[in-house]
Amino acid sequence: MPLLIKNGEIVTADSRSRADIYCEGETITRIGAGLDAPPGTEVIDATGKYVFPGFIDPHVHITLPFMGTFAKDTYETGSRAALVGGTTTLIEMCCPARSDNTMGSFEHWMAQAAGRSACDFTFHMGATKFDAATESDLREIVSRGVSSFKIFLAYKGAFGIDDTELYRTLKLARELGVVVTAHCENETLVFERQKELLAAGKTDPGRHHESRPPEVEAEGVHHLMSFAELTGAHTYVVHLSCRQALDEAVAARRRGVNVAVETLIQYLVLDKSYAERPGFEGAKYVMSPPLRDASNQDVLWKGLRDGLIQTVATDHAPFDFESQKQMGVSDFTKIPNGIPSLEERVNLLYTHGVRTGRISLHTLVDAASTRVAKMFDLFPRKGTIQPGADADLVVYDPDYRGTISAKTQHMNVDYSAFEGWRTEGRPSVVTVRGKVAVRDGAFVGDPAGGRFLKRTPSRL
Ligand code: URP
Ligand code: ZN
Ligand code: ZN
User: Fold this and answer.
1) Is the dihedral of CA 365, 91, 399, 4 positive or negative?
2) Is 123 helix (H, G, I), strand (E, B) or coil?
3) Pocket residues for ligand 1 (CB within 6 Å)?
4) Is 357 exposed, middle or buried (0-12, 13-18, 19+ CB in 10 A)?
């Protein structure tokens, strides 16, 4: 059935206008004032509302075997939560263990998503080791439509790679025109500091950030930048959390290194005092890199506004508090890392960024949709509102007032890091390629309507 969205204020990364949007099949076919709808068209009145391009989360974990357990969401739950929050495309980290076969892992991750996702999806392919077989698999995976890799400079013994592997992965990426996304923390420093803290009897969740201070992250970024400079690879620093790390990325960019920066909604609105809450409550807020001193929030908001930071993601990694987080009750290094936020990213960005005047609506759209699409070879199919683009649209009600709670969220996890927080605005209608998937906070779409998005590298 064709779809007509009438009278909304269309906001893209660089324009704002009041117009109607007509969609046929899966795409936007016309934009203009006073468009007519043929009989049988579904008409949505967007008077008083914004219409945004569907949001894209460039960094999520759905299938994630990690720290002796598994992240809680599946594509069934995670994709619905994403859509309710206005996110219509997920880019998931496909993360094989070092002992796993790369191609087998890619196929496993794909099988978890295919036919089970309500929204569209693609992957950053984890390069968690580098040998002849891995290289050959990575080449094949790129030819199957994946144009980005993921590497970890942290997580010794699990996903982390050594410098030889880093160098060779970046050289391959450069050759293939693939962008390399990277978790930047110096794993040796983390390991040593964890041992020191535990030996001193400092085992509580509030110690987690002491084991990975800003210098550890800044060193990771600096390290990656040196290798990127030598290889010419395009790099993307994931989940950047602090001023020191941003300084390293910006300095490298100024000397010509190809680097983009992602921060997370968690770092913009939470700080380390949450992880220092009494008892074991702080475990809800343990993630890596850790939540930082609150002074970093202004640096990150400003970085976003000034274009030093390109994207805002969630690094969604949900682990239940009552069971999984308890694995670290007497040793913070065993708390599964992650703060779930897939459903809340856009509303928190709107509430704490746009409504407070820290960023414009255009920056919100750019950082959470358009720039992601451009950086990861999805544009202009995704990330904008124009004829020919996929009809992934978010009709956003700026007057809605809500309260976040684990009791009402769609994410499959037993707590919310933002319990009781007030939000302003929410998606009232979300469409996936022309079909309504969300209405007034409820998922009403096709549970298996999501598709794998093939991407072709564009950096050669
Ligand atoms: O704490 C985090 N970030 N958990 C997910 C895994 C990762 O490092 O991205
Ligand atoms: Zn990471
Ligand atoms: Zn991650």
Assistant:
1) positive
2) strand
3) 61, 183, 239, 287-288, 315, 317, 337-338
4) exposed
Ligand 1 geometric centre to CA of 9 (Å): 36
Cα angle, residue 166 at apex, residues 160 and 171 outer, rounded to 5°: 150
C-alpha count within 13 angstroms, C-beta hemisphere, residue 349? 35
3-state DSSP of 169-190: HHHHHHHHCCEEEEECCCHHHH
- Cα distance between residue 376 and residue 141, in whole Å: 15
For residue 336, name the pLDDT band (cuts at 50, 70, 90). very high
Model confidence at 368: pLDDT above 90: yes
**154 alpha carbon to ligand 1 midpoint, in Å?**
10
pLDDT band at 156 (very low <50, low <70, confident <90, very high): confident
Please answer whether residues 21 and 28 qualify as being in contact, where contact means their C-beta atoms are separated by less than 8 angstroms.
Answer: yes
Residue with tokens 């009403």: 444
Hey, what CATH topology would domain 53-375 get? TIM Barrel (3.20.20)
Instruction: Report which ligand 1 atom has the smallest distance to the Cα of 183.
Output: 8
Probe ligand 1: pick from 61, 185, 267, 270, max atoms within 8 Å of CB?
A: 61
pLDDT at 157: 83
- Tell me the CA distances in angstroms from 237 to 220, 358, 381, 412, 415, one per residue in order: 10, 22, 24, 27, 28
Determine the pLDDT at residue 460.
79
pLDDT score for 17: 98
Pocket test for ligand 1, best of 155, 181, 314, 315 (most atoms within 8 A of CB): 315
Nearest CA to ligand 1 atom 3: 288
Nearest to 418 by CA among 405, 402, 408, 427: 405
Q: Which ligand is in closest contact with the Cα of 266? A: 1
CB atoms within 10 A of CB 324: 23
Residue type, 443: F
Amino acid of residue 238: V
Residue 240, pLDDT > 90, answer yes
Q: Show me where the domains of the chain are located.
A: 53-375
Residue whose Cα lies nearest atom 1 of ligand 1: it is 287
Residue 286 CA, closest ligand 1 atom number: 1
* pLDDT reported for residue 313: 99
Pocket test for ligand 1, best of 208, 237, 239 (most atoms within 8 A of CB): 239
The pTM score is 0.98
Confidence of residue 14 (pLDDT cuts 50, 70, 90): very high
Whole-number Å distance, alpha carbon 340 to ligand 3 midpoint, is 11
- Which residues fall inside 5 Å of ion ligand 3, going by CB? 315
